[in-house]
Amino acid sequence: MFAGVAKYLREEMPKVVDVPRIVHFMLRIGKLDKQELAAALDPNNLPELVPKFPFAMLHVAPIPTRSIVRDLWAIPKDFPNRIFLNLKLFEDLENRTPDSLTPSHVSVPKGSPDSREFSGVVKDGLTEQLVGSKSTDPKFRSLGFFKDTHVFSLGATLLCALVDFGLWTKEKKIDSRAAAQFAVEVYRTSAFL
């Protein structure tokens, strides 16, 4: 039904296991190691991705205690090997609409053209506060230099859903902040959540 999406999921998404920042924070926050992440991104393995209308996600498990439900994805506890993603993510990527992309930031060396320094407050290895510029406030430290870029919303959302999937399947735990924390650490943004 979505040939372009299928190709993207089959050919492009598995490449994220070669991105150290994604692998590190998937393990740190979502509890999936590199091999488990690779297996989860393999279309021949579970979890199964299911496109759904947003309102239909509520019918998957109507009460929050029975599922991890966000605006863009749902992971029902009764079907832990399925991730229901908002149908619009599939349609936007298939048709390459402007909504198929979301802002992100990639790490670059200091002095790179069009880069900017991010500052933040880090506690226990996780960003607690983030500023998209250099800060003179002593509680903020440099987090490095980043360049604006765009990533596909479907891929970024899938990775955030995999954080919830990992927490639920490995620890039977729901943490409403985990996926947002992953987005901040990996993309230096949470615009797509």
Structure description:
The chain has 193 residues and is of the alpha+beta class. It has one domain (3-187). It has 7 helices and 8 strands. The strands form 2 sheets. A 4-stranded mixed β-sheet has the order 1-4-3-2. It has a 4-stranded antiparallel β-sheet with strand order 5-8-6-7. The longest helix is centred in the C-terminal third of the chain and has 19 residues, at 153-171. It is globular. It starts with a helix and ends in a 6-residue tail after the last helix.
Strand content: 25-35%
Report the sheet with the most strands, covering strand number, pairing sense and barrel closure: 4 strands, mixed
Low-pLDDT runs of 5+ residues are 60-67
Name the structural class: alpha+beta
**Spatial order of the strands in the main sheet?**
1-4-3-2
Total strand segments: 8
Distance between the termini: 25 Å
Q: How many domains would you count in the coordinates?
A: 1
Instruction: Indicate the radius of gyration in whole angstroms.
Output: 17 Å
Q: Secondary-structure element order, as H and E? A: HHHEHEEEHEEEEHH
Helix content: 25-40%
Count of discrete alpha- or pi-helical segments spanning 4 or more residues: 7
* Dominant shape: globular
In round numbers, the mean pLDDT is 85
